[in-house]
Give the backbone structure.
Amino acid sequence: MDKEQAIKASKAGAIAAFISGGLTSAVVVFAILTNAKGSLGLWNDPAMFFDIFLIFSCGIGMLRYSRSAAIVIGCYFVLTKIVIGFETGEISGIGMALVFLYYFGRAIQGTFVYHRIQKEQNPDYRSAPKWMFYVGIPSALLILLVAGFGVLTMSGVFPSTEVASGLEMRKKDRALLLETGIVRPKENIRYFYSDGFLSILDYGNILTDQRVIRYVRDKTNGLKVYEFMFDDIEQVKLIEQGNAIHPSIYEVQSFREDAWVRLSLSTEGGGDVAFIEALRNNIQQTRTMPAIQSPDRSSL
């Protein structure tokens, strides 16, 4: 690859990044406006705009023959496909993905060849200021670390970062909750969220068709399970509104004096709201349910 070919390869990679960013932007906007669910629901998240910013930034970087930008977009694209594959259970659009990978791979080669030739032609040539290396390399590593964590989360190595409905939760998580006795065999799980880091057994919140549960694993006392049946709950109130970094905190208060439990729920995809709305609906249904009349024993 000569210098002219290197320039063309780098610019072609930039164009591929801009096309990818444009397509991603269109899908994200559509998913958010329609409140998409299912596979398309993966893009129904404002945090996706960070991904869009990253894609376009790498495109601009490749126009300037940035090796870091070319490497980051290539690694990001591969990791994204892996995450989507884990989440949806299938890898779609393989043909288009290979086309993008070809251009990103050529861009990586082109940017390195360009700077090598520039250095050969001018020994005093500097490809980038030193501060770019001190900022760019750690930033690239951080991005790849975050993306890698996402892959491990999707693959089930780490607990999911969002509230899952009973139909969406992982089979192995359900089996573990049954095995440890946190959930009873005949209970129907409606929503589940674990705020544990390495294991779902560290902390968790569960809404079933019978009760709401908060469990905590303590190193000293072992696994502690706190629960309220729906007819024992007086109110549920918001203590702290969460955000993309911190979960929302809700307090479930019982009719019994000084009996309460706090739930920690991720805001991702509005999961905290869905969990609490379902809980409040269950409480309301329990209160409006007609009392079962006991038989008149005087007639026996």
Observations:
- Strands lie at 164-165, 189-193, 203-208, 211-218, 222-229, 233-240, 248-254, 260-265.
- The CA atoms of residues 67 and 111 lie 5 Å apart.
- Residues 3-155 form one domain.
- Confidence is low (pLDDT under 50) at residues 151-157, 292-300.
